[in-house]
Predict the structure.
Amino acid sequence: MSTQAVARPLAGRVAVVTGASSGIGEASAEHLAALGATVVVLARRADRLGDLVTRIEKDGGTALALSVDVTDAAAVQAAADRVATELGGADLLFNNAGVMLPAPIEERGTDQWQRQIDLNITGLMNAIAAFTPQLVAAAAERGVADLINTSSIAAQNIYPNFAVYAGTKAYVTHLSRHLRAELGAKNVRVSAVEPGIVGTELQSHVTDEGALQWLAGAKESMEWLTPQDVAETIGFIATLPPRVNLQQVTIMPTGQAS
Ligand code: NDP
């Protein structure tokens, strides 16, 4: 293998990252670009995406910012059409945008339930609908493509007051396993990544007092994962030989018990 291939193993690949304006998505976009991929960064905040593209380009990478609300199916499809026209299509989708709004179910915070379902499930499906044809086409042409969905340890474990969020993430994990069985035959690898607690903007949207106290305690009692820790896992998944599909990866802070 050439030095170039070792240093930039994703050269020639086109990676779309949703939720790329902060946290895990932002770090992953930078890491995938450093590994050689052309990255397409999607989120709503255009200014943040612009700064990210500038940073990636300064480091010698290639990036395209598309300011999109992933809950808008037509807007996501328009973004996918641009990726096809301008870059020849995506061969990696890191389907990562999400929101976590815990609260006791008896408070009936239906607006917050809906926001989580709309983004974590419908937004995820909008990206799958828009980009799966590109992934399948790329895999047929080049032998491999990747669909990596961000789930959560909440898909596996039980956390009172996190029922709706955990339910959306259980959907992501179970969906991913089914899609892997369906798309694997077409050389599209499907992975669910399930992080424990990662220090990002995710926690800043939480309004429930009990959950905020729990988070503050968790911050005191253990060292949280960083977005870069998850980004390196995404890079690892994408650079494995085409025959290898990490189906489900749980990545926990060492000090987080459950
Ligand atoms: P952040 O809040 O930092 O990132 C969320 C990203 O989603 C932002 O870039 C935000 O950008 C984007 N986003 C939100 N709404 C929309 C929308 N309607 N359309 C497009 N993009 C949107 O959190 P994380 O990085 O932590 O979260 C990333 C994923 O990781 C989520 O799916 C989360 O559930 C999951 N996760 C996080 C854990 C943690 O502890 N942090 C643990 C386990 C899983 P913008 O506002 O600009 O649109």
